[in-house]
Specification:
five-stranded antiparallel beta sheet; elongated; single chain; alpha+beta; Immunoglobulin-like; 477 residues
Length: 477
């Protein structure tokens, strides 16, 4: 029987679409840590070098003001996704779900034929048979290997893959890294093989907060009680086990009670009971009912829609409602703010610390009096090549005079990503302030720049120059 005979257009199963999406996500997650341009990665939160690589731009730990923005983007995306499409994150993006599909549907069912049908996820293999025990052992072995690969892949977002494999030559020198890989792999083995979907039901906190984000227009897998009939009463107690029994109370009821939507569910729920925390919006039940009802030349009783449209029958689902628009507005605002702040990244880092001694006053052989202030400059070159740096001192407009740089005398080289400490001495021969009662704190601005890139790689830092009171200077004359 083809589609024309049935009279109902049968769409491509959601399960197949999910498999394609899982393959894309898996490929993306594995490849991303390897992508780099000029030694800068697409994304890397390096614990070794205390740096964040984001879209091939490096940020020092002192510049991790972008990290809160990234966290906000993630949470706003998930919350907005949930308000619009229910637990679509769980069914389509969550690593737990993807790993379970790889293990159960691919390894156990497709490759080893341990499970007879993908459409029946409730029927466990008969482990009394020796051939099934062997297949199970093979499946577990394959998953153990994949667990270590997945754990290593996660670490690559914190340790570059090339460094990781270099460390692998001497694992005992990097016990924290490989201890983390081992712990994560053991957790994945226990989680995917033994805990299974119980993780989604009992452990994952996301299911507990999803109901707060739902409204009548949230799209989810729904059983149409208006067409199929009420299998469960208001107390979620099952009333009927056959179509004939349902039709005694509801003659129009179309549900055949074949329970295909139940046996295919990975979290072992009955979608006909209504909204449940365990539902991960994988839409396997939609596929199952589509096939069964399609043979009867009827549309599926389980659809991916909203209460407003299917149950209450009040009209079409409103996707862009206030909740979604607020999430989109906030998300766009955060992304724009993150882009703006990231584009103003400083290509050198500079901390200016004044030494404890306020100043020194000395008389030179030619009779001139000079006042020195000493500082400690801590610099870091955030570019990927050696550069020479120097600086100048800018005085307020109301101060007449000049402050010279005595030490260092000339530009100095700074190696990339290595912090360099320089002792800097500033000197003046001029009478900047004439006050015989107090030392004067003069605000100054340090303009540091890279030689040859004076207009591109430049930073400004505020500091102070302490000028002594007049009697101290006169005592030296």
């Amino acid at each position: 029987m083809n589609k024309k005979d049935i009279g109902i257009e049968t769409p491509k199963p959601w399960r197949i679409k999910r498999y394609y999406f899982y393959a894309f996500i898996t490929f993306l997650i594995i490849v991303l840590p390897w992508i780099q341009i000029n030694k800068s990665y697409l994304f890397l939160l390096s614990f070794d070098n205390l740096k964040l690589h984001f879209f091939f731009v490096e940020f020092d730990m002192q510049e991790l003001y972008l990290l809160p923005f990234l966290i906000m983007v993630i949470f706003l995306s998930i919350f907005g996704m949930t308000a619009m499409g229910g637990r679509i994150f769980c069914g389509w993006v969550c690593p737990q779900t993807i790993f379970r599909v790889i293990y159960r549907d691919l390894i156990e069912t497709k490759i080893l034929k341990l499970r007879k049908k993908i459409k029946n996820k409730q029927l466990e293999p008969d482990m009394s048979l020796m051939k099934n025990k062997i297949k199970k052992a093979i499946a577990v072995t394959i998953w153990i290997i994949l667990s270590f690969v997945a754990s290593a892949n996660f670490i690559w977002y914190f340790i570059p893959p090339t460094d990781f494999f270099e460390y692998l030559k001497n694992p005992m020198d990097h016990t924290i890294i490989f201890g983390t890989v081992l712990f994560m792999a053991l957790f994945l083995i226990y989680d995917i093989i033994f805990l299974q979907e119980d993780y989604c039901i009992y452990v994952c906190p996301y299911s507990r907060i999803q109901s707060v984000l739902y409204d009548d227009h949230t799209v989810m897998a729904l059983y149409n009680t208006n067409r199929g009939g009420h299998i469960y009463d208001n107390h979620k107690v099952k009333q009927f086990t056959s179509q004939e029994a349902i039709q005694v109370d509801e003659p129009h009821a179309e549900c055949t009670t074949c329970e295909s939507c139940v046996t295919v569910c990975p979290t072992h729920i009955d979608i006909r009971k209504g909204l449940q925390l365990e539902c991960i919006n994988c839409l396997e039940c939609v596929d199952a009912c589509t096939i069964v009802m399609g043979k009867l030349r009827k549309p599926s009783l389980v659809t991916w829609s909203s209460n407003h449209e299917i149950i209450d029958q009040k009209g079409r689902t409103k996707y862009f409602r206030p909740t979604i628009l607020i999430c989109i507005f906030l998300l766009v605002g955060v992304i724009i703010s993150m882009g703006y702040i990231g584009s103003n990244k400083e290509h050198m880092l500079l901390n200016v610390n004044k030494e404890n001694r306020l100043y020194s006053v000395k008389k030179e052989s030619n009779g001139k009096i000079h006042i020195d202030n000493a500082y400690e400059f801590l610099l870091q070159n955030t570019k990927n090549k050696e550069m020479k740096f120097f600086f100048e001192v800018l005085l307020p407009k109301d101060i007449n005079g000049k402050i010279e740089i005595i030490k260092p005398k000339k530009a100095f080289t700074v190696i990339p990503h290595i912090k360099k400490k320089k002792i800097v001495v500033l000197r003046t021969y001029d009478i900047l302030v004439d006050d015989d009662r107090h030392d004067t704190i003069i605000p100054i601005t340090i303009r540091a720049y890279a030689i040859g890139y004076e207009n591109k790689i430049v930073v400004f830092r505020k500091s102070t120059f302490t000028y002594p009171r007049s009697d101290i200077i006169k005592a030296k004359q």
